[in-house]
Amino acid sequence: MAISVFPKVNLRRTFLIARRDYLGYVKTVGFWISFLMPFIGIAVGYAFTQFDVEVSPPRYESILDETGQHKSGILALHEARNRQQFERLITSLEGAMLDAETASSIKETLRTEGAEAAQAAIESKVPSLKGQLKPIENKLNFIEPPAETLDAIKPYLVGEKMITLQGKDRPLDGLLRITQGPDGPVVNYWSKNINANAAKDLTEDYFKALAETQFLATGGLTREGFKAAQKGRLNVESFDPTKVVGEAESQEVTKADRIPYFVAAGLSIFLWLTVFSGAYMLLTSMLEEKLNKLLEMMLASTRFSEIIFGKLLGVAALTLTAMAPYIILGVMGIIAVILHDNSEITQALLASFTPKIIIFFFIFLVLGYIFYGACFIAMGALSQSMQDAQTITTPIVIVLTLCIMVVPIGLNAPDSSLLRIASLFPLSAPFAVIIRLPSDPPLWELILSAVMLALVSLGVIWAAGRVFRYGVLSGSGVGAIQGWFKRVILRRKAS
């Protein structure tokens, strides 16, 4: 008599089980709280920007320099850093909203006329940013000390006396006091906020630079010469000999060439999160129903195979529903960038989502979920408690954690032989294949990896069905398996 490898499945009963698992979670308040949390976070963040809610309000502090030598240097360093921060903003707009000549002109305006003039220049060149850039306001602002001694300033620090800024009274947030000690300057920082470090860090950086400058001067060297030597370092440019370009282009490696690898890394991590969260929900669902004797009632009218496939289908739908907010926000963000930006980077982002990567992403998403889901179902059937389940699942959780390590390998060494082996190894194949796709691996390797994972998944489903039957009907657990291993494999007699 021929024995069928594939179990018989009634689609209607399978669907009922899937619907039961899906609705069992979706009907809970906690699920909808977690589902709406990303949108609530965006709404709260938008409200903060619209109503000018300050999460970290600006601080107004003073410098009491009793030596008369360091206050101007600290203020100059502070101003230079603020200018560098605004220059980074201009650089980020260069290529996307500003051409190179305009960006250079605005940077010159920043150096000569200040931040407000530079901001006005940006808004005049890019009208869509008008009103979008918040007024330039530093989180750390230095003002003149309200008194000439520490004892006279302390009442302002504790709020007994107020300073007047823009017509409003407020306490002084902090004070840097610089005195001359026997071994050099001594700096004390006074503030009610014991976690405020901005002024302290700025002062430490100033004195570090001052010490370096004084040391260089002892040998007849200057800091300007040291910086000029650093700028003279050789910059090595990268070129890709396999890059197909037009007549007016070169084979130089640009940021746009690296974007597909970061997209693949993001998809691989998303796949890992989806598989892990879905498999864990399968484990808890199976364990809960086993402990409550619900599985025994279901088996009166349902096959083992129908329960397994139903749970896989139901939790898969639940996982996709739970991930839906992040999928929606991600897709909306990509579409918004593509529609409002015609830069080279945007074109590279659009070109990253090729039919090849989309097709294989969904193939390995399904296969990876089935593979690990069946493993967790079997573990849930064998567990007698949540502590028992955590002990059993520890090895596979460690394996899952190790598998995601292929992502940094794929970013740094996409031609690694280890990565190729990982793409053929069923446990890591779902994640390794995705991160390899930007380097255009041979199609036969991708198909071979998918076929091998599909065959192993079928074997895991078959084994999970046997373990499921053994664990549920006989009520056996890990202890029974250990006893079988000692009796059959180690040939030990029961004590």
From TrEMBL:
<feature type="domain" description="ABC-2 type transporter transmembrane">
    <location>
        <begin position="31"/>
        <end position="464"/>
    </location>
</feature>
<keyword id="KW-1133">Transmembrane helix</keyword>
<feature type="transmembrane region" description="Helical">
    <location>
        <begin position="22"/>
        <end position="48"/>
    </location>
</feature>
<dbReference type="GO" id="GO:0140359">
    <property type="term" value="F:ABC-type transporter activity"/>
</dbReference>
<feature type="transmembrane region" description="Helical">
    <location>
        <begin position="417"/>
        <end position="435"/>
    </location>
</feature>
<feature type="transmembrane region" description="Helical">
    <location>
        <begin position="358"/>
        <end position="380"/>
    </location>
</feature>
<dbReference type="GO" id="GO:0016020">
    <property type="term" value="C:membrane"/>
</dbReference>
<feature type="transmembrane region" description="Helical">
    <location>
        <begin position="442"/>
        <end position="462"/>
    </location>
</feature>
<dbReference type="InterPro" id="IPR013525">
    <property type="entry name" value="ABC2_TM"/>
</dbReference>
<keyword id="KW-0472">Membrane</keyword>
<feature type="transmembrane region" description="Helical">
    <location>
        <begin position="261"/>
        <end position="287"/>
    </location>
</feature>
<keyword id="KW-0812">Transmembrane</keyword>
<feature type="transmembrane region" description="Helical">
    <location>
        <begin position="308"/>
        <end position="338"/>
    </location>
</feature>
<feature type="transmembrane region" description="Helical">
    <location>
        <begin position="392"/>
        <end position="411"/>
    </location>
</feature>
<protein>
    <submittedName>
        <fullName>ABC-2 type transport system permease protein</fullName>
    </submittedName>
</protein>
<dbReference type="Pfam" id="PF12698">
    <property type="entry name" value="ABC2_membrane_3"/>
</dbReference>
